[in-house]
Amino acid sequence: MDFHTEALVVGGGATGAGIARDLVMRGVETIMVEKGDLAAGATGRCHGLLHSGGRYAVKDPESAVECILENKIIKEIAPKAVEDTGGLFVALPEDDEAYMDRFVSACFRIGIETVNLTLSQARRMEPNLSEEASVIIRVPDAAVDPFMLTVMNARDAEIRGAKIMRYCELVGIVVERGRVSAALVRDNLSGETHRIRTRYIINATGGWAAKVARMGGAMINMTLSKGSLLVFNRRINNCVINRLRPPGDGDIIVPNEPTSIIGTTSITVKDPEDFRVTDGEVEMMMREAGLMLPESAEARVIRAYAGIRPLAAPETGSGRDASRTFTIIDHKTKNDVAGFLSIIGGKLTTYRLMAEKITDIIADDLGISIPCKTASTPILEPGNERHYSLGDRFGSIEIVQEDKPSRVEEIVCECELVTKREIVSVVKDTGTKDLNDIRVRTRVGMGSCQGGFCTYRLLGILHELDMVPDYEANEILIDFLEGRWKGIRPILWGDQLREEQLIEGIYMGIFALDKVAMRSGAKKGRSK
Amino acid sequence: MAVVRRDIHYPADQCIKCTICVEHCPVIKVTDKFLGPKQVGPDFQRFRSENDDPHDVSVDYCTGCRICDVVCPSGVNISELNIRSKIAVREKEGIPIRDTLLSHAYMFGQIASFTAPAANAFLKFRPFRWLSDKMLHLEKSLRYPFYQRESFEKWIRSYTFKSERKVAYFYGCFTNYNDPSVGKAVVKVLEKNGIQAVFPRQECCGLPLLGNGNVREARKLARRNLAGLLSAVDDGYDIIYSSTSCGMMIRDDYITYLDLYEAEPLFDRMKEVSEYLWELHEKNELNTDFIEVPMTMAYHIPCHLRSLGIGFPAINLMNLIPGLTVRELGTYCCGMAGTYGFKSDKYEITRAIGQELARQLAKTDGIYAASDCEACRMQIENMSTKKAVHPIKALLWAYGIEPVGGV
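Predict the joint structure of the above. Result:
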């Protein structure tokens, strides 16, 4: 099929969706293509932290300034995706005192509001905080749902006229007389190839940016840095907890829905899909978490995952030294390919600013004088109400029960309290039969049992809706459960090990899924 | 902002979602108004925070039988999570008058036993029951327990047996006001073994208050009970109880729910009456001079006896009696669950849970059915034609103190 547009955004992460929204808001006709689901790359694999900028205040003030400005903006324009938890920077006795002074004065210069707390004040907010904490400083950090933020941006762009094409992978770029003229895109679901004629191609593909640039005959020098994270079974902290020291590994714990997430690491990798979490990383993070929240050592960990940071800087020893600000590359000046721009680096917190800057360039080129309004226009209004509190999810399930005792909400995922109605509505809205699409939109399968029980129910629902032919059922099950298994494998101890024994019993003993012959030849991790 | 619980070793982490508790829950089997022990317990617990308003609705349908705790292979204190969330809801929303009345039944005991014939007639009076159902949602079709003219407390005054060997006896308010014959039987059986009962100062154990979410008042009663019970322990006495629910409340819940850590020394000294007698037997100290009691006795195990974790000593004891055949019914919760069954919105559930008990009772010979718990005995009589008795009565008959069937 042939499409025609002014701008083609490649990549459906927070940045891509933000760019698509900004472009249509300025009257530029836009298509966004994403090879998988929205937020499937670095966006969906990040920490979910809306930085106050405190982390970068001392070493990377440029990035810190961006963070604090954007922090305030995102809280205003996307309150539904933000849980305004606040954050603490915590120094332990072994930490460098000189750094603490530098931290406070840097925050002051940059405009990050800080409040010094006594240990007893802090422990009222954060009862699990270490008694060893010597300096505690409050900053305006918050937790953000990266997936929701991306989906909201994409949906808003769509309503304003953009075309969002999921599961459409860029396979080629046509350059004519030194300017991009079209892109070839393969629909990964149907196998069909589309041709999209366009004046601009914006490469917002994160870790895949170099690969995409090459398709257009351009080069990008960038570093891929893997960051690993661990998910606790429940909230062990109320606000974001940062270690007050120069940015290092395992020094941030972010509350996220009913869980807490500790991260990260920084390991240079070659492949943007190298998501393996090593034993060493797990041990280090558990040790570091224990220093700030001593009892976390006993808390159950349900999952490990990793994301790939596309850093703008060339390789320099450690990825921690690279600036967290972003770079826009206009391939016209660098590689003589006009209409082709790449954006790399940056953070989830600054996605909107990144979108603004790159859209400015295109608007300028097109002679459009409409200024950027994304900083003051709430995303998806109305329908962008306050972030729900932790209890609201089961509150809503229970209230429905009380009002209509005859029609009980059927809970599909008992750990994350996802109802059948929610699942059906996602399936009907998106037309997806990919369990991961349903997972990221509802949190199904993301709780204590990691899908060990609800996946089978989920498949039953897809069956009921005539979405899945019989011969595909096993593969969908296996694919999803193997995906979950990858994240469980690195943290197999204690309660999660007992859990996994049971889940494996169901997987192998009841459903014999390890004996199923896969048509696609996908690897099965569980079978020995 | 959410506030997390301080204790991080928290039981929700241990739950591996095996769902064994749901399989055994008597309530979820018969109604979908209760989401089940796992959902309401460890599952919801991940979403609860201390300064968030409590959201629980369906936990009100938990009977508090605690079978979930007994069967959990992961050691999760499911019922505690449920009871605590019930308490949180009640603390925010207040306790309905009906539940306040039910949980203060001990207060009416004194007046009602003084005016027993009138009070009983009144409780039977149809217009009164209709009215209390309409106004207070107290189930009208259920038999209320009758009050006795002479409370057990009053009877104690005529108790003159003296012995060197003594044991303290916590009889509980049901025995005191509604069925003093149980207390009398306990005392007479002890006497046959040369043991004198002493009676520490006592009031309602507080379980009905706790079950209805009133921690503050439960704690008041508990403190007063503890004064008496702890001084009995100081005097070197074991403490026996004939109501399994009272025993569980005092032995376990004073610490768990009421934070009364001074109750700790009681743990090893509290003994269910059959447990106490069986221990005597194991030491060859039980008087087994029994006469033949030719009958079949159905026996229903109370949930709170299971929860105590002391086995089923009443069965052992009854098996010592020549001629007596014990038929353990194999039933779980009877459905009455203390004050639960008196609430009209729960009545259907109570009946439905009780069906299995009714079936088993109907299949069993004999006219007597024993159970250590007064609520179970009420339900046995509601659901069958059998006469419900405390197992101690079998010993009363075996010792020939009373003729078979007598109290």
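The radius of gyration of chain A is 23 Å.
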